[in-house]
Amino acid sequence: MIPWLHVAVAVLAGITLGAAVLTVTLRNLYHCALSLALCLIGVAGLYVVLSAEFIAAAQVLIYVGAVTVLIIFAVMMTERITGVRGEAASQQRGMAFLAAAALAACLISIVQATAWPTVLAQTSSDPSSTTLTLGRELLTTYLIPFEVASVVLLAALVGAVVLAKEDAPREGS
Questions:
Q1: Are 19 and 39 in contact (CB under 8 A)?
Q2: Would you call 41 exposed, middle or buried from its count of C-beta atoms within 10 A (0-12, 13-18, 19+)?
Q3: Cβ atoms within 10 A of the Cβ of 113, count?
Q4: CATH assignment of 3-112, given 3.40.50.300, 3.30.565.10, 1.25.40.10, 1.20.120.1200?
Q5: pTM recorded for the entire structure
Q6: 53 and 127 in contact (C-beta within 8 Å)?
């Protein structure tokens, strides 16, 4: 790997991990949502370094754009309906830290036990071949997970609309 790629991966991983920690530790829900957006941008940057430009663009458009805006919209509408400013406080920080440490230990042991290939396969630099392969895989091998993700996003959209709808008084009541 080219040395500047090592630096780029290290910087992007630091941004992603730092933003992820901020996402789960900040108390203000708006700040949590913005930290989540930064984390997702870091992941998109990692996709660019891995030569998956289409996935990076989809990451920015779908997750950073749509999902983060949907989360902020839901927070704003919930505050408007309930009149209570949301705080991301939890009484279970100790248990969450233990669960995160156990998961980290498990993942580290798996990464260390895996025999990683040392030679990268030559990939085509033509983005259209990557997009074609990705489209073929999404509509054949990964069709069910792709459809489940679309149903989850649709449910989130319907939930946001329900939260945003005002209970207007009906005529005649």
A1: yes
A2: buried
A3: 7
A4: 1.20.120.1200
A5: 0.63
A6: yes
